[in-house]
Amino acid sequence: MSEIQAGEVGAGETLMSVSDVAVHYRARRKTARALDGVSLDWRPGEILGIVGESGCGKSTLARAMMGLQPASEGELTVSGGVVAGKSEQRALRKRVQMIFQDPYQSLNPRQRVSTIVTEPLKVQGIAKEEHEERVRRAMSDVGLDPDRYLDRYPHQLSGGQRQRVAIAAALVLDPEGLICDEPVSMLDASVQAQILKVLVGLREQRGLALIFITHDLSLAWSLCDRIAVMYLGRIVEEGSAEDVIERPQHPYTQALVTAIPVPTPGGGGRRELLEGELPDPTAIPSGCRFHPRCPRRFEPCDRVDPELIETGGRGQRAACLLHDPAAVAAAGRDGAGSTA
Amino acid sequence: MSGGTITVGGTGDTGAGSASGVKHLLLGTWRGRFGIGVLALTIFVAIFGELLAPYDPNASSTDVLQSPSWSHILGTTENGSDVFSQLLVGTRVSVIVGFAAALISAVLGSLVGLAGGYFGGWTDRILDATENWFLVIPTLPLMIVLARVLEPSLTVLIAVIGLTSWAGTGRIVRAQVLTLRERAFVERARALGAGDTYIIRTHILPNTLPLIFANTVLIVAVAILSEAALAFLGLGDPTQISWGTMLENAFSSGAPSAGAWWYVVPPGLCITILVLAVSMLGFLFEEYINPRLREAT
Amino acid sequence: MSALLEVEDLRVTHDGKPIVDGVDLKLAPGEALALAGESGCGKTTTALALMRLLPPTLTQSGVITLRPEGVEDPINIGRRTETGMRLVRWRHISLVFQGAMNSLDPVQKVGKQIAEAIGIHERASSSDIAARIDELLATVGLTGGVAGRYPHELSGGQRQRVMIALALACRPSLVIADEPTTALDVVMQAQVLQLLERLREELGLALILISHDLGVLAETCDRIAVMYAGRIVETGSVDEVFAAPQHPYTKLLLDSLPVIGGDRGVGIAIPGAPPDPGDPPPGCRFRPRCPYSAERCDVDPPLREVRPGQLAACHYAPWEKWPDPVAAAGGEVSR
Fold it and tell me: What is the ipTM for the molecules in this complex?
């Protein structure tokens, strides 16, 4: 369905990029590194998936991109311009909007749909004459009849309808990008596809770029152009959706893909599962942060913190020493990425 | 979440806010009807008390401590004044002090709770410490000290009661704001680029108001009781008749030991009934905004 | 072989309005039954009704018969008194419910909580109980040291394992697991599912697994019952139902799931939202959302055998070939 390959979507230019962004908290005399040096490009019109387990930092990254979470290090650029001050942040919010996971929490229960959807226009100081038309258009774009729904309160809507209202409220500002933090994980299976259709439709009609944060790898695979896999505050693998999910190069991604339940009987079979659980972000392991759980770790993994290394030549990159010929050669082991 | 089909209570968002619901609450339950009835009657008397009073409440006569009769339906005081007239006229002070002090307490408590809960950090720590201080110290002795130091007058009485009763409201508002601040719709507004004033005004305050209101109604009851207590201790405004000063005069003139129940019981009963009525309304509102309490009854 | 559990015409009502509207189930010893459906379809209510754990505002009727091994007379759950039920709960049927990992008592050590569950049903010496706790924890893949810890010292996955150990404490013959993995991440979810599968093999447990995630159910269960608006609309072996669904709802649910390696893109969307079982639409309950509906759907279809061993509540079943649902629905998602 999405014919557009990574790389082809506005190659070269970016809608937004983060470079070396870190978010550190002080918690009980320890520092939690929720986000620990993440660089990522989001291209115009692209659907970018960010996947990982809870606590991997994917939501923190989204919040940092929206300026809701001040970054301890690193910078955020929008179309080449660095976002530093308040005025740039305000401008950014006109261009990039966000929707949240829980449609029951993200709408003010005391406001009517019309107030909720008009709010962004008011906050951003858009001329009053434009309000009604923009609100009606946004409502139609998400498949809600404005005449029927504008006067309702959130508790009169189903979960799917609430999420549509949240999307409409993000759309009224005509953003170029929409960050969606687990937009369907609280919805029923039969309703999920409705919301996904709306989101993908917006990309097709308006050229809206999407960031799709999810823990559901099959969903990310089916929707996204590109996927970044996060583990403990870092991106450990990125590339086109097909490459990353169908041909994962990082042992962590491989483990995630193996763990996906398959809706075909017996499809899962007996499989090797990852041992242990996500370590505490206040005590990130030395070297490669995945090494204590990694089934394929070898000698240098507890010392060397791997960079993202190009694998396969189609823009797929993995932060794993198995793809570093020098490290593999030095350890005298035949790694997956051995070339020599 | 899926799977859960059993709904016990609600989310707290769904029930609140409809006008018909409030109407049913006030007129459809016996507690509501009692509360509203008593309150309406009290306010009416507070406004028109002087016109309704058969005698000048301050006029003295030689008919001292007379038991109830056709000419004085609630008897007379130690100065020969009409008890019923005093009771009618005295309503005004109780009502004014009750509502004005509760208003001060509500405004103060809300401001402190909003600021502390919303901004957090040092603001919160200082405000929270102040709040705890006011919660922990016994209120009545503090009121007595303050009222003694200051010149007794109606304004002083209102100020003293208002200043000593806001901490509970502050605490409740702060807790509510703390949860609201983390709600996704506040986050969403922030993602839109909305400022703090805007967020407080459009998202935090409207979702806190019902709580403030219910709590304030309860404080009205406390304030009425406090006024009576202070007046009874001789710390009320000596120039004004109130139910509290009536009780004080009755006791200082030895009416109870003289068997003059008609001088003691009516103001005492009025205070009790009004406080009961207002408290009932307060509890009703509280249950209304908190469905979990509604389920429990 | 006689069934371990037999449920006939189970109904649960709230103020006279049905939540579960006539459910029949049969479960053989050691069998795993999947109960699938969306939120509000009645699957959790069904599970609670099987253990008579519904809140007092709900009324249940119907015959529930349990025939555990080693017990001579079948247990008639519907007729038991509350005291009688206490002997059945945990001893014969136990429950791992949704969000269970947060239901451990935070101020008691894990071992003590397990000991309590055993102590209620059996008289055993403290050394016996200690040995049982170690054995139980080992069964669910935890070290004995966990017994001495408080719940907050454990991770989500570990707590979920403790809850499973608790459910196994009295060696029941049936465990009902209600969304046991919903709050867990993929890796932990897979670990817990593998554990459940192993326990079934080793202990001969029968399992009712409730989930909205068809992937989870397909991997773990033998048979499946799909619920919609308080009723079972399709049931059969997992293999058959997934390979050839006979109710449009099952078919569309399966089509809405992305399957890696298949077609990319958004799956089929079912228009609208599930109805309230207390106020179902007339005729077939799925009719308003069904792209295949036709005139016979005015009449409420009974659940009947449409292929050997496979039952579906659809007038037009068996479906030899499904028409293209997008074309059938008129090409667009309504509402």
Answer: 0.83
